[in-house]
């Protein structure tokens, strides 16, 4: 609906509506039936004229502020009492108002919808605001967490752990970062085979017990299977990292890194050389 | 025999030019290798007019480590020996102020510790090119003039310093993550201040155990 237009639903018993108008401007009121000529205005500051058989034109003079106008159609099925409120020029006002006769149920639904929209509006506005700030809040929280962990512990551990499978895919584990209470174990998958290497899961184990945290692989290709963490194309290398939670419990223990493929063939197990000190 | 160094040189050049655009080898891997060596050597003797060609056999034990994805550094203990004493047809030797002349028989062997780079240019099938040099010892048995049944003390059994340089090309096949088999061709020149030049052309086959060391 264009700006300056409105549609009001009129229940069988009639209705009362408020219409904002500008002084010295014409506002047209249209009805579904022929309008009775006996419209009654509470003030002479508003001029009321028949536009055609189903429409009235109203125009407030410069003195007008608030005027009520009672209108009915000739059949009597539409009875309304309008409050014409003159608003300043910088506020929105209506230029065309349509009145539509509806059943009581339709009128109720319309009122309900309007009321709901009115009540939901502030919630929606707040939600939009939260959405807009969510990324920033998440970033702030992450940065705060990182800062706290950095202060607690921030040490790089050099490692020399490697393994290779029979398909010429090699896993290198040469660095870990002790970060707060956790450790980030970095690995590189060097795929020297002629087929892509698909990584389903990366798990760090201590004494056979998994210490799995989040895993990321800087994939060189994409896989259709969403369960696959990433794909290392043939002839390419990719870096990955796995988070070891509560690393203090496994310090100075020999850890195993399992890089598991979807079918299990070619799974890489780095069983030696991963000791965090 | 003199063509052997040129052949090996040509193979080295061909291997280098034909290497893959992306070098692929085995960074951080260590490779223990044992090879059986056989070939021919040009045996020389002081006072002999012409050298003799003889068969040699031996073995090699080596350890290499992948410095990068295309370059290993290797150390090799190479032991070769003439399969039988060489007989030099016309040899002169001063024995107690007397010059003897005739057929002269003597055996030779060398053990060298060689160090050098190895370029590894593949993944499953791995062409390899090695250059190495090092030191060792040359053993020569006591020589004799068999026709005169004289074994001059001046040509007695000796163990002397030996220097060696070698070029080797080969092709290895990676059987699995820890086992490699290979065949190689090599040219070796050994020489010492008290030992004559010993050029050797050899072929060898070997087996390697590959691992990621924790050092």
Tell me what the structure shows.
The complex is a heterodimer of chains A (277) and B (215). With 277 residues, chain A is of the alpha+beta class. Chain A has one helix at 104-152, and strands at residues 5-10, 15-21, 26-30, 40-41, 46-52, 55-60, 66-72, 79-86, 96-101, 154-164, 169-179, 182-191, 197-199, 201-206, 209-210, 215-217, 230-232, 237-244, 255-260, 268-270. In chain A, strands 1-9-3-6-5 form a 5-stranded mixed beta sheet. The two termini of chain A are 70 Å apart. Chain B is mainly beta and 215 residues long. Chain B has 1 helix and 10 strands. Chain B has one helix spanning 4-17, and strands spanning 30-43, 52-66, 71-82, 86-95, 98-106, 108-120, 125-140, 158-176, 179-192, 195-211. In chain B, the strands form 2 sheets. Chain B has an 8-stranded antiparallel barrel with strand order 1-2-3-6-7-8-9-10. In chain B, a hairpin with a 4-residue loop joins strand 6 (108-120) and strand 7 (125-140). Mean pLDDT of chain B is 88; it is low at 11-25. The A-B interface holds A 160-166, 168, 172, 192-193, 235, 272-273 and B 22, 24, 27-29, 123-124, 174, 176-177, 212, 214-215.
Assembly classification: heterodimer
Characterize the main sheet of chain B. Answer: 8 strands, antiparallel, barrel
Stretches with pLDDT under 50, minimum 5 residues of chain B: 11-25
Helix residue percentage of chain B:
under 10%
Structural class of chain B: mainly beta
**Roughly what fraction of the amino acids of chain B lie in strands?**
over 45%
On the 0 to 100 scale, the average pLDDT of chain A is 91
Radius of gyration of chain B: 20 Å
Count helical runs of chain B: 1
Strand count, sense and barrel status of the largest sheet of chain A are: 5 strands, mixed
Poorly predicted ranges of chain A (pLDDT <50, ≥5 residues)? none
CA-based shape of chain A: rod-shaped
Helix content of chain A: 10-25%
Question: How confident overall, as mean pLDDT of chain B?
Answer: 88
Taking the alpha carbons of the first and last residues of chain B, their distance comes to: 43 Å
Task: Write the H/E string of chain A, N to C.
Answer: EEEEEEEEEHEEEEEEEEEEE
Structural class of chain A: alpha+beta
Total strand segments of chain A: 20
Shape of chain B: elongated
- Spatial strand arrangement across the major sheet of chain B: 1-2-3-6-7-8-9-10
């Amino acid at each position: 609906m264009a700006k300056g237009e409105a549609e009001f639903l009129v229940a069988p018993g009639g209705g009362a509506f408020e219409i904002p108008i500008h002084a010295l401007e014409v506002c047209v009121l249209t009805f579904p039936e022929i309008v009775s000529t006996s419209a009654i205005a509470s003030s002479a500051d508003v001029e009321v004229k028949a536009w055609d058989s189903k429409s009235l034109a109203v125009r407030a003079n410069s003195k007008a502020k608030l005027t009520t106008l009672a209108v009915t159609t000739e059949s009597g099925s539409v009875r309304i009492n309008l409050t014409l409120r003159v608003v300043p020029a910088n506020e929105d006002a209506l230029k065309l108002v349509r009145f539509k006769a509806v059943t009581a149920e339709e009128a109720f639904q319309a009122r309900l919808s309007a009321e709901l929209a009115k009540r939901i509006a502030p919630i929606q506005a707040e939600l939009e605001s939260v959405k807009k700030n969510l990324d920033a809040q998440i970033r702030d929280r992450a940065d705060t967490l990182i800062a706290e962990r950095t202060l607690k512990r921030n040490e790089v551990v050099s490692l020399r752990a490697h393994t290779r499978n029979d398909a010429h895919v090699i896993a290198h584990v040469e660095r870990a970062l002790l970060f707060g209470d956790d450790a980030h174990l970095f690995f590189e998958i060097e795929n020297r085979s002629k087929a892509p290497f698909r990584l389903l899961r990366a798990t760090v184990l201590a004494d056979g017990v998994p210490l799995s945290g989040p895993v990321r692989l800087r994939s060189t290709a994409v896989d259709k299977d969403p369960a696959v963490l990433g794909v290392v194309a043939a002839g390419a290398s990719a870096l990955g990292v796995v988070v070891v939670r509560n690393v203090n419990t496994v310090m100075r223990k020999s850890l195993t890194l399992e890089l598991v493929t979807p079918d299990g063939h070619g799974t890489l197990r780095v069983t030696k050389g991963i000791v965090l000190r | 025999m003199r063509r052997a160094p040129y052949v090996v040189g040509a193979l080295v050049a061909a291997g280098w030019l034909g290497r893959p655009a992306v070098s692929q080898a085995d960074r951080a891997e260590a490779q223990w290798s044992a090879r059986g060596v056989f070939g021919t050597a040009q045996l020389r003797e002081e006072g002999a007019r012409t050298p003799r060609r003889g068969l040699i056999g031996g073995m090699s034990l080596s350890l290499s480590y992948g410095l990068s994805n295309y370059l290993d550094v290797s150390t090799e203990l190479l032991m070769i020996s003439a399969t039988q004493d060489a007989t030099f047809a016309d040899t002169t030797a001063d024995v107690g102020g007397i010059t003897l002349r005739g057929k002269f028989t003597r055996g030779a062997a060398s053990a060298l510790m060689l160090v050098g780079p190895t370029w590894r240019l593949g993944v499953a099938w791995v062409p390899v090119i090695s250059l190495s040099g090092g030191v060792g010892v040359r053993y020569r048995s006591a020589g004799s003039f068999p026709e005169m049944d004289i074994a001059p003390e001046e040509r007695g059994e000796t163990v002397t310093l030996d220097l060696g340089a070698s070029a080797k090309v080969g092709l290895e096949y990676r059987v699995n993550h820890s086992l490699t088999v290979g065949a190689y061709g090599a040219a070796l020149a050994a020489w010492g201040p008290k030992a004559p030049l010993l050029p050797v052309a050899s072929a060898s086959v070997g087996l390697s155990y590959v691992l990621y060391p924790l050092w």
